[in-house]
Amino acid sequence: MMGTTPILVLKEGTRRDRGRSAQTSNIAAAKAIADAVRSTLGPRGMDKMLVDGMGDVVITNDGVTILKEIDVEHPAAKMLVEVAKTQDQEVGDGTTTAVILAGEILKRAEDMVEQKIHPTVIAQGYRMAAEKATELLEELAEKVGPKDKDTLGKIAATSMISKAISANREQFADLAVKAVLRVAEEVAGAWQVDEDNIQIVKKQGGAVTDSEMVDGIIVDKERVHTAMPTRLEKAKVALVNAALEVKKTEFDARIQISNPEQLQAFLGEEENIIRGFVDALKGVGATVVFGQKGIDDMAQHFLAKEGIYTIRRVKKSDMEKLTKATGGRLVTKIQAISSADLGTAELVEERKIGNDDMTFVTGCKEAKAVSILLRGGTEHVVDELERSLDDALNVVRAAVEDGKMLTGGGSVHIELSLALRDYAPSVGGREQMAIEAFASAFEVVPRTLAENAGLDPIDTLLELRTAHTKGRKHHGIDLESGKVLDMRKLDVLEPMRVTKQAVASATDTAVMILRIDDVIASKGFKAGEGEAGEGGPEGEFD
Predict the structure, then answer these.
(1) For 361, which of 110, 200, 216, 505 could close a Cys bridge (C-beta 3.0–4.6 Å)?
(2) What are 423-458's pLDDT values in tens digits?
(3) Rounded to two decimals, what is the model's pTM?
(4) Thinking of the domain 8-143+406-521, which architecture would CATH place it in?
């Protein structure tokens, strides 16, 4: 009798996919994610309109933005979204390339699994191929440095050629290069760029061409009192993280006043405290005050009488940038301020941008913080402008830090594909098939570029292979003419880190998905019910 009793290892309602079923489901989900962003790749790629549950609209062709906005349920698909996020964090560009490469690697793996090649063998071959590809990238890379402003500008322009602002890419490439080089620092012989030192301020209105770089900081605040000056040259800047107001007692207290003289004395003491704050600032020579906390009406009055330009409730991030730009030190106790704590700026002024008044702190000596003001006709234009500029800043940063660049237009991917095919026979065994499949997967990039441009992908790939077989390693697809031309001469350049990170992320994710042969999805219990609630398991496997 005991032999016929079912043994329940998993709770009722749990769904389990095993073996080929699990692998097929996971690979199908990954391919679906890759197909979702595939049409956005390259200069002729299309945009996506994303509408969330609140009705907010995002129009973009940025791979990571698309994948962040859409609500992905399948766990394997979420892993491909992580590929895009990692690529964005490490490089800031090439997110679409990384995702479609991962999808293609898995697609090729599916064919080998059907031929009874074990997933661990495929995984081993893929890792060998990725390692060899990284070595080949180092050989293909050319040097670039902070002094090569022209080349860095071309790298920035290449990253924006597929964006909505491609018509103005030269202007924004120039802004990106200037901003990155302004904050770049050489530490122990290596260049470092902290992108947090580059402030991007968006203001709807005006034309895209009105965008500009400010050699300093833009604070989206206006002066606290209309009697204060709107413009101060050779400003001495005090950065204060303390309230210019009388503090309330830390415990409940009652003050009993029995006659008008006592009331007057009490109010007079409050006034003296505030005046003491203002005298301390004036005494050290401060002409501009940026306060992180509140400033009451009496303090505003005294500061205005002294002609001190003052802003209150400045964001912590802006205060940090102001310290780097002006060279000032953040003070937490006003009475302890000294002239050594003050920063300097050639000009501090209030400007009207659109409908808002903003404070510009410019002309900072040796500023390690800069701002870029973005203008555009609509909110969607300004948002996409920010995403495009962010890509440009990141690729210039990667090129400066690594000092290495490659040619674009699919030239590197076809070169890697051919080189890996030559390398595969030297490995032998079943891993050889995996390496050859990995080599074929690289062709997805030039093929997609050709498809999105309306070219014949087969003819284009054949032409590319022929050119690279003859040693023309920089030849890629010129999507303007539809021909295979030298990308070095056409100034289509990108940092080596873009392709290197895409290969690493795509390989790691593909290998992880391939090694999964069992998917167990638990069905959640609803509160107040003794058995599993209605609805499907967490993460539908449709």
Answers:
(1) 216
(2) 999 988 888 999 999 999 999 999 999 998 889 999
(3) 0.79
(4) Orthogonal Bundle (1.10)
